[in-house]
Amino acid sequence: MVIEAIKEKGADFFVMQSGNANFFYATKFRSSSMMFYIAGIDGTELLILPEMELRRSLRESRVKEIASYEMLGYEEKIKELKNPKMAIAEILVQILKEGRARKVVIPNDFPSFFAFILQKNFEVEVIDNPFTKLRAVKNSWEIAEIRENCQKIIQVFPKIIKIVQDNKKLSCEEVKNILENELWVRGLISEDTICSTGKLSADPHEVGSGKIEDHLLIDVFPRNRKGYYADFTRTVIINQNPELKEMLSAVIDAQKVAFRMLKEGVNGKDVHNAVKDELKSHGFETRKDEGFIHSTGHGIGLEVHEEPKIGDIDVELRSGMVVTVEPGLYYKNVGGVRVEDVVLIKKDGCEILTPFERFLA
């Protein structure tokens, strides 16, 4: 797909900087250092990085051709230019010129400093990163990583529910800390976990604070040490509240509609519209900033939100995609409810990777 993207634009090379999921996916090498990946139209690949990362990259990276800045004349250039970033930019230009580049394509998150330098020497075009689409369909190893993450969440969650049931005076912050610690000891890193209650939960991304009221919306999206995520949400009804219960029942029914539709070849937009219709059939309208105000789901992998989006755009679902299904309802005078599961798309249906009770009261 990378070579096709280069050919499509009539370019000679694709250049990408480190520090994002696409770079790791392309190279299978992670470091906080500044690195560059260069792919040629002839299928060649080159990873360039600091000398201190060279030996480790030779062991870990899938890219066969690797060179350090020092091997490419960094010390001489830094003496002349007195600017580390400019020295690295000159090395990039040098490599591309040696490859007889005329046109270079770069992803839309490419740093502007290096983009301007390249633009002075070559024709440059910004494109959507081709690795973003490649990452949408997971291989068996990636599916296993996500599946294991999901299983660990399911192992932890009954304990969290019991803690909330046994001590209703806990705060949102205390529940969040307990949950994140339980995941940590199982090798999962969880940040910005949502434990939201009351009317504040009408904001889908409200982290939550203070004493738990009639319900608790828990949304956890941890990643493992290899960088792969999971994503899981449940709404727990604490005290009798007919409105919240009715909303939660509608959301669960809407999620079931999505589950029945999901399989290879289905248009994600059709799934999203069916979810909206189901919620509407329960009497829950979406108006301005209230109701069902976000997409039905999204891909998950090296990022917690990635391709494909199951929402108001056309997208063909393919076997091997791992997505979330997370309908929700949000009203300012009541609060918000949401259920979310991770699902593996298959040829003739889907597999729920987070099987757990949905109506928690």
Give a structural overview.
- With 361 residues, this protein is α+β, with helices and mostly antiparallel strands.
- The protein is built from 11 helices and 18 strands.
- It has 2 domains: 2-134, 3-Layer(aba) Sandwich (Creatine Amidinohydrolase, Chain A, domain 1), CATH 3.40.350.10; 140-352, Creatinase/methionine aminopeptidase superfamily (Creatine Amidinohydrolase), CATH 3.90.230.10.
- The protein has helices at residues 2-8, 21-27, 54-60, 74-81, 84-98, 112-121, 130-134, 140-166, 172-184, 242-261, 268-281; strands spanning 13-17, 36-40, 45-49, 66-68, 103-107, 123-127, 188-189, 194-197, 215-220, 223-224, 232-237, 297-299, 306-310, 322-325, 328-331, 335-338, 341-346, 349-352.
- Strands 4-3-2-1-5-6 form a 6-stranded mixed sheet, sandwiched between helices. A 3-stranded antiparallel sheet has the order 8-9-11, sandwiched between helices. It has a 3-stranded antiparallel sheet with strand order 14-17-18, with helices on one face.
- The model has no long low-confidence stretch (mean pLDDT 96).
